[in-house]
Amino acid sequence: MRKGKLFVVSGPSGVGKGSICSEVIKGDENINFSVSVTTRLPRAGEIEGIHYFFRKKEEFENLISENSFLEYAKVFDNYYGTLKDYVFEKLDKGENIILDIDTQGALNVKANYSEAILVFILPPSLDELKSRLMNRATENESELKKRINGARAEIKKAINYDYIIINDDLNKAICDLKTIIYVEKLKTDKKVIENILEEEI
Ligand SMILES: Nc1ncnc2c1ncn2[C@@H]1O[C@H](COP(=O)(O)OP(=O)(O)OP(=O)(O)O)[C@@H](O)[C@H]1O
Ligand SMILES: Nc1nc2c(ncn2[C@@H]2O[C@H](COP(=O)(O)O)[C@@H](O)[C@H]2O)c(=O)[nH]1
After folding, report:
1. Position 31 in a domain
2. How many other CB atoms are there within 10 angstroms of residue 109's CB atom?
3. Range of the domain at 85
4. Per residue in 97-137, pLDDT tens?
5. Distance from the CA of 70 to the center of ligand 2, in angstroms?
6. Of 72, 104, 110, 151, which sees the most CB atoms within 10 A?
7. Residues that constitute the known binding site for ATP
8. Cα(182)–Cα(48) distance, rounded to whole angstroms?
9. Could you tell me if residue 1 is inside a domain?
């Protein structure tokens, strides 16, 4: 069976990664969201197993020692990690998967799984990014500062990505990510054609 494709979406906190990914997944039953494990506390409305698997620090560290993660990183003082089995079970079944993870994690995934397709989401400006985070109002002031101050370092890594989307208009950004997924799927289809034509009969 043909393997699924692994898409990694990154970008500074508040740029709209979650908003874009959730809409893309809603419209495509062959694409799944990789639910990460985190030690961060749930925000209002976040559901265990849908948005994250929320775990205590000791539980997360046990998962590290059991080698359960494809990648993990400390982001804004909390641990976040992608479960290896969760991802490879889907890929092996031919299903596509999207990871919404930071740049440290994304580059580690690429180093271990070179077929991964990296997509970076840019804000139209840092000022707009700041106001999106402030309007979302999910972080306290010191947490908010950490996220805003971390934005430049994340954006510097965009150069290593396969695709860049500017999220100035949410619907357009959703459409851009859908197009990238479509184009990457077409590339696999082309490979199938090449394989058939190479067959000896
Ligand atoms: N194009 C857009 N224009 C205006 N607001 C937007 C746009 N895209 C997303 N938003 C809003 O910006 C806020 C941040 O979006 P979202 O939570 O999806 O970001 P994120 O990149 O997933 O953040 P984090 O990494 O912190 O989880 C949300 O309130 C969302 O509704
Ligand atoms: N390296 C990883 N980064 C992850 C993972 N899951 C989420 N994230 C990134 O963390 C920040 C903060 O997320 P938030 O939900 O607290 O706003 C954001 O950049 C996410 O992309 C993961 O498994 N590994």
Report:
1. yes
2. 20
3. 6-197
4. 999 999 999 999 999 999 999 999 999 999 999 999 999 99
5. 14
6. 72
7. 11-18
8. 30
9. no
| φ, ψ at 107 (rounded to 5°) | -70, -30
Q: Which atom of ligand 2 has the smallest separation from the CA of 51?
A: 15
Residue type for position 113: Y
Q: Is 15 in the pocket of ligand 1 (CB under 6 A)?
A: yes
150 lines ligand 1 (CB under 6 A): no
Does the beta carbon of 167 lie inside 6 Å of ligand 2?
A: no
Give the torsion through C-alpha atoms of 180, 105, 27, 192, to 10 deg: 50
* The residue to which tokens 């290593």 are assigned: 160
In this structure, which residue's CA is closest to atom 10 in ligand 1? Answer: 16
Number of domains making up the chain: 1
pTM: 0.95
CATH number of the domain to which 118 belongs: 3.40.50.300
pLDDT surpasses 90 at 1: no
Residue 160, φ and ψ in degrees, nearest 5: -85, 0
Ligand 1 atom closest to the Cα of residue 19 is: 18
Give the CA radius of gyration of the chain: 18
Closest ligand 2 atom to Cα of 73: 1
